[in-house]
Amino acid sequence: MQKEDEITxxxxxxxxxxxxxxxxxxxxxxxxxxxxxxxxxxxxxDISTMKTLDVLKNCILIREFVGIEKELLYKYKKYxxxxxxxxxxxxxxxxxxxxxxxEFMKAINYRELFHIxxxxxxxxxxxSQFVLxxxxxxxxxxxxxxxxxxxxxxxxxxxxxxxxLLSYNLPIDSSDFFVKKAEIILNEVI
Length: 190
Prior knowledge:
The protein is α+β, with helices and mostly antiparallel strands. 24% of the residues lie in helices and 44% in strands. The protein has 5 helices and 10 strands; from the N terminus they run E-E-H-E-H-E-E-E-H-E-E-E-H-E-H. It has helices at residues 15-24, 52-57, 98-107, 158-167, 181-189, and strands spanning 2-4, 6-11, 28-42, 60-65, 69-79, 85-94, 110-124, 129-136, 139-145, 172-173. Strands 1-6-5-4-3-7-8-9-2-10 form a 10-stranded antiparallel sheet. The longest helix is centred in the first third of the chain and has 10 residues, at 15-24. The chain is globular.
């Protein structure tokens, strides 16, 4: 299982305002892609009696990076008592066809739980990189990883990552560095 170290925070302004703020701080748009996730759960799991984080632990995702790749994905997350992510990782399996994957999952007794359609914008300023994720006008997030793809070097701890993000003085909600987008959407649909 591939381990991940990242933080995710909520953006507290409009898309136009955050992009203007980023440009003023020397960030440039490097890449834009759309990521569509279908969250699937076994038919025999009664989610009405479960905490949302426990529901998500039982989900398999059918993920499409539109025009790039498709995969089945399992995300592992371990939480502390406050719901902060202590450890996370993922394992994926490439697939060729989203519809056939959906049919396969239904054939082995999984059902669709919810969808997340995420417009992703990768920004960098040569020393930092993060993804601005836009789900809707009121659901925008910044995700930052310890090991970025487009800049050299990496930070060593999540605390360093938090400090680096805060140093840019962006319009974000800094009360939660482990926002769980899927939990927010799941709470809206159940």
